[in-house]
Specification:
The chain is an alpha+beta fold. The protein folds into two domains: 77 residues, no CATH class; 100 residues, no CATH class. The chain is 49% helix and 20% strand. It has seven helices and six strands. Strands 1, 2, 3, 4, 5 and 6 form a six-stranded antiparallel β-sheet that branches. Strand 1 and strand 2 form a beta hairpin. Helix 1 runs antiparallel to helix 2 and helix 3 crosses helix 4. The longest helix is centred in the N-terminal third of the chain and has 22 residues. The radius of gyration is 17 Å and the shape is elongated. The termini are far apart. It is found in: Membrane.
Length: 197
């Protein structure tokens, strides 16, 4: 039987999330980031649930949640859902296409002409390397938190991680943030917090 995509529930959930977030201006930046992560992860899982069947659907949901969680945390106040997913996918593609070397790529929104910037990525470093935290912090532009260091310590020996620093101009406002991505056993990259979950 051919699967038919029914977006009604998804659209309703995303609209409800957007309305909920718009009423949260009294929250601190950390609270908004955590809320954005949660909403982004749920929205990403909902999108992923519409793709594939059986185990393929489970993988799509997990990937959607990971991407949604990453971008929800980093740029929830600035980018819409499609822009967030585009940015996350572009980051993952850049990391896979540039194994072993640092560099940057340009990124631009497909929805708004005044939303664009660059994704900078550092070289991969093994979590076993005694200077891994310093290397990742230098590439990302800020120190790793105690939680991030603990998450790295929980990863398998030999796991490679890299830092990214994304700088965007969003409607004449400059925003930037960094993240740590780690290589999975299948050769893909996932945000550190999703790898350590």
């Amino acid at each position: 039987m051919k699967k038919i995509f029914r977006p009604t529930f998804l659209i309703a959930a995303l609209l409800a999330s957007a309305l909920f977030l718009s009423g949260c201006q009294a929250l601190s930046p950390q609270q908004r980031a955590a809320l954005g992560t949660s909403v982004g992860a749920v929205a990403g899982a909902l999108v992923g649930s519409q793709l594939g069947d059986g185990s393929g659907r489970t993988v799509a949901m997990a990937l959607g949640a990971a991407i949604g969680g990453y971008v929800g945390n980093q740029f929830a106040d600035y980018l819409n859902q499609q822009e967030q997913q585009s940015l996350a996918l572009s980051t993952k593609k850049a990391l896979r296409a540039n194994e072993g070397r640092s560099g940057s790529i340009e990124w631009a929104s497909d929805q708004r002409s005044n939303v664009a910037g660059e994704i900078h990525f550092g070289q991969p470093v093994s979590v076993d390397d005694g200077r891994a935290s310093q290397t990742l912090a230098a590439a990302r532009g800020d120190d790793l938190t105690a939680q991030e260091k603990a998450q790295m310590a929980s990863l398998s020996t030999g796991t490679q991680c890299r830092a990214t620093r994304t700088s965007l101009s969003v409607e004449d406002r400059d925003v930037a943030d960094g993240a740590i991505w780690c290589r999975t056993a299948k050769g893909d990259y996932m945000p550190l917090n999703m790898m350590a979950a």
